[in-house]
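It is worth pausing here to work through a concrete case rather than discussing structure prediction in the abstract. The textbook approach is simple: state the sequence, then state the predicted structure, then interpret. We follow exactly that order.
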Amino acid sequence: MSPGIVLAVLIVCIGAQLTRLLVPRRGNYLLAMVCAVLGLLAAELVALSGHGGPMLGTVPPAADVIGIVLAEAIGVAVAAPRRLGGR
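Step two, the predicted structure:
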């Protein structure tokens, strides 16, 4: 497995975990993971289209982080707050 893919997986896991820590009442962990993966893929596609097409996973991680942050923000905004205790 290439180091770029390992780094991408770590960024996705950290992004989803940070979302769950910062906004615990919005959505669930699965939603956070899906948003992180979609953000990573979108960032990779945007970076690939602007750089002439390097291999997937070789674009700078900053682009991946920005994509994940944007996707997580959209996911948090769309997700309804969870109700604790059935209230």
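Step three, interpretation. Helices lie at 3-22, 29-50, 61-78. The mean pLDDT is 78.
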